[in-house]
Amino acid sequence: MFINLVANAADASLARSAQSVRLSWKVDAGSVVVTIEDRGLGIANAENLFVPFYTTKPSGSGVGLALAQQIARAHGGEIQLVNREDGDGARASIRLPLGEGRAAGSGLAGAR
Length: 112
Hints:
Layout: H1 2-15, E1 22-28, E2 31-37, H2 64-74, E3 78-83, E4 90-97
Antiparallel strand pairs: 1-2, 2-4, 3-4
């Protein structure tokens, strides 16, 4: 899930000759929130982002974001993709629960 989102951000940034992707994380209300920001063109068609086989990439399969969303949901989490308000590019926020309430077998046991 994270590899796909970081690769998408890198592709978007490089398409505009921007050479940065920013990753950050925070703990918020019993969850960890990982944020990935790029400096690409932003999101043009937000309605179809998680539709399987929808892609804007010439060689894309359209499976990556749909699969990433399934993985996040399987762990009791969610993914939100939006255009950045502070400039060009997009922001992916992945929220995953910590401690109680996590999906069984999520690998987050004991995480704090």
